[in-house]
Amino acid sequence: MRHAGPGSGMWHPVWLLAGLLALLYIPPARAVSLNLLIWEWDLDPGLVKAWTGTTGTELNQIIFDNGERRDLLIASADAPIDMAVIDSAHIDALGQRGLLVDQDRYPLPPEARSEARWRSMCGRYGIPYIWGGTGIVYRADRVSTPPESWADLLRPAPALAGHVAMTDDQEEILAAALGFLGRPMYSGDPEELKQAFAILKAQVPAVLTYSLPVTAQQEKSFRDRIFIGLGNSGDQRTLNMTSGGSRSWRFVTPRDGAILWVDCLAVLARSPHPDLAERFIAFLARPDNAARNAIFLQQPTTNLHAAALLPQTMRDDPQIYPPAGIPVTYRRSAPTDSLPLRRRILSALIAIHDAQ
User: Fold this and answer.
1) Among 165, 172, 168, 170, residue whose Cα is nearest residue 221
2) What is the Cα–Cα distance from 43 to 296, expressed in whole angstroms?
């Protein structure tokens, strides 16, 4: 899951609606371009330039920062999107609705295929893109004792009160609290979810914002006020790039349980240029390009051929590859019957926070 920022051909969430509407009125004579719905700082700009230089096709990056809002855009017939980065927990449901192209129609050469575990998670409708973990990001110059567990985020030290950034993604925030409690991170049990709510409710006075640190850090009202937060591997790189010269951000995988995810590249069924979109996906899947992108993102690649091209220092970095011995939960969708309670919990947390 991870994140792209300011730059040529990139649109931020605040510009998203205007940008999408503008795309609806592209003059017919304009050169063909592809529109990619993607997280912030999630693609090496050098690869974008190489693609355009090779094919003459422009790539427009439309930025999102929340999975639910991404899915709404994918489902909107008026949103001119050719491709999207979708986490494995939600890609199958979107594909089953007829919104995505079946990737069995576009087989990749063997050297461009990802590991079997990632292919199985992306299923019929996606090509594995990058993988990583959800954990804790923090400023080493502001947090005196590096965090080690979910407790350090959910029950922060007094000095961190008012400096915590969480997320408005109900699956991730509840997974963290359930992991802290030692319960299944995607439990649908109402009693366990209520226990998780109690933990998160007690944390509210310390929370500065319910938005991803990489998003909040770019807002003037929050800049330099976030010291610790819920984040993903790779976010520390983005935070360091957007922190005015500071390079103090770090990422840690909590010892009491890691959430691993894989993001998949999918082509929308309504794309007017599906073959060109598939050509772009195949371009990114080439081992040399996948390795280049992983180095830029500072995140693991899903391709073993590409992994062999990474620097050893990167493969040994615990901020990038989760340390051995930590319990692992692969991200998946929450049980459908638990969604109303989960949404009420998130709404209640935000309401309590706003009333402070």
Assistant:
1) 165
2) 8
DSSP letter for each residue of 109-173: PGGGPPPHHHHHHHTTT-EEEEEEEEEEEEETTT-SS---STHHHHS--GGGTT-EE--S-HHHH
CA distance readout (Å), 4 to 97, 215, 294, 316: 28, 10, 13, 24
Orientation angle between helical segments 190-203 and 339-354, nearest 10 degrees = 20
Q: How many residues does the chain have?
A: 356
Check pLDDT > 50 for residue 29: no
13 pLDDT band, cuts 50/70/90, is very low
Q: Give the mean model confidence (pLDDT) for residues 257-281.
A: 96
- H helix intervals, the chain: 16-23, 45-55, 67-75, 88-96, 116-122, 151-154, 170-180, 190-203, 213-216, 235-241, 274-285, 287-297, 304-307, 312-315, 339-354
DSSP assigned state of 33: E
For residues 257 and 312, which has the higher predicted lDDT (pLDDT)? 312
Q: What's the rounded Cα separation, in Å, for the pair 207 and 306? A: 39
Alpha-carbon gap, residue 8 to 118, rounded angstroms: 30
Q: What is the pLDDT of residue 66?
A: 82
The residue among 302 and 40 whose pLDDT is bigger is: 302
- Spatial distance between the Cα atoms of 143 and 152, rounded to a whole number of angstroms: 10
DSSP letters spanning 94-108: HHHTT-B--GGGSPP
Set out the domains of the chain in order of their start, with CATH numbers.
Answer: 10-131+262-315 (3.40.190.10), 132-259+325-354 (3.40.190.10)
